[in-house]
């Protein structure tokens, strides 16, 4: 893995959270994008090399709404940039990690993504992402 690509934060209200993070970070978000397959609305901020992704559920089926129901708002996942997502998925599988999807899927911000079960990583949902 190359670096932390972004940190995903589950929020109840994206426009409220976005204005808070805009004031916190001192920059405007560079992208707002709906990922219909995941039932989420996302908004990205960048400071230096680091990115923050805010995620709001667009339906009750969304993993974000389930997360907020259980745990409240907060850090939802840590995403790592990888060069070759398929190779990295193979490597992690061999190491015994539980992958939440068998093949890479299209995520937000022009990435192919795969998630690793939080049970495998001491309570943290891990996202692998590769630039498309
Ligand atoms: Zn993410």
Q: How would you describe this structure to a colleague?
A:
- With 132 residues, this protein is an alpha+beta fold.
- Helix content is 23%, strand content 39%.
- It is built from three helices and eight strands.
- It has helices at residues 14-25, 63-71, 85-94, and strands at residues 3-10, 31-35, 40-47, 50-57, 74-81, 105-106, 111-116, 125-131.
- An eight-stranded mixed sheet has the order 2-3-4-1-5-8-7-6.
- Strand 2 and strand 3 form a beta hairpin.
- The longest helix is centred in the N-terminal third of the chain and has 12 residues, at 14-25.
- The radius of gyration is 14 Å and the shape is globular.
- Bound molecules: zinc ion (ZN).
- Zinc ion is lined by residues 6, 8, 53, 77, 79, 127.
Bound molecules: zinc ion
Rg estimate, integer Å? 14 Å
Number of distinct beta strands: 8
Low-confidence stretches: none
Q: Going across the biggest sheet, name each strand in turn.
A: 2-3-4-1-5-8-7-6
Give the integer mean of the pLDDT values: 96
Q: Looking at the structure, what is the overall shape?
A: globular
Helix content: 10-25%
Number of helices: 3
Could you give the distance between the termini?
16 Å
Structural class of the helices, strands and pairings? alpha+beta
Instruction: Determine the strand fraction and express it as a percent band.
Output: 35-45%
Q: Main beta sheet, described?
A: 8 strands, mixed
N-to-C series of helices and strands: EHEEEHEHEEE
């Amino acid at each position: 893995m190359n670096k932390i690509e972004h940190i995903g934060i589950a929020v109840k209200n994206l426009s409220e959270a976005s204005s808070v993070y805009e004031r916190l970070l001192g920059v405007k978000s560079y992208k707002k994008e709906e990922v219909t397959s995941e039932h989420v609305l996302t908004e990205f901020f960048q400071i230096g090399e680091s990115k923050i992704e805010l995620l709001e559920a667009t339906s009750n089926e969304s993993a974000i709404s389930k997360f907020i129901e259980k745990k409240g708002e907060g850090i939802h996942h840590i995403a790592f940039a990888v060069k070759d997502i398929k190779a990295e998925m193979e490597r992690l599988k061999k190491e015994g990690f539980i992958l939440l999807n068998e093949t890479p899927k299209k995520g937000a911000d022009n990435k192919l993504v795969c998630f690793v079960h939080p049970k495998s990583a001491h309570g943290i949902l891990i996202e692998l992402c590769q630039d498309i």
